[in-house]
User: Fold this.
Amino acid sequence: TIIGYIVQQWHPCKAKLSVQDVSKKTLLMIIGPSCGCCYCSDVNFKVQSADESSSVGLITKQWGGFAREAITGTTDFEIQFPIDLDVKVKALLLGATVLIKFMFFETD
Assistant:
């Protein structure tokens, strides 16, 4: 059963993803850092309302330190969202986190 979609939106310098319901209506936007950001610290992806006027949550790729990042293939993410957010939207944000990992942090 399809519960929604994560769709990449074109932007010249930022990662921008829309979280859409099953009818493809945009529910939330995920806005990543500028392309010149440093990946030697935590990297934040803001979860915002559909019109980008208010903050709803945060997806953070946590920096594990130089040795861990260079030697192991493990990555830690943290997702923050309101407790009363619809469970389907929470599942979509979890899926978006996996997509972000593969789009921006995988080299193999």
Remarks:
- The first helix runs from residue 66 to 71.
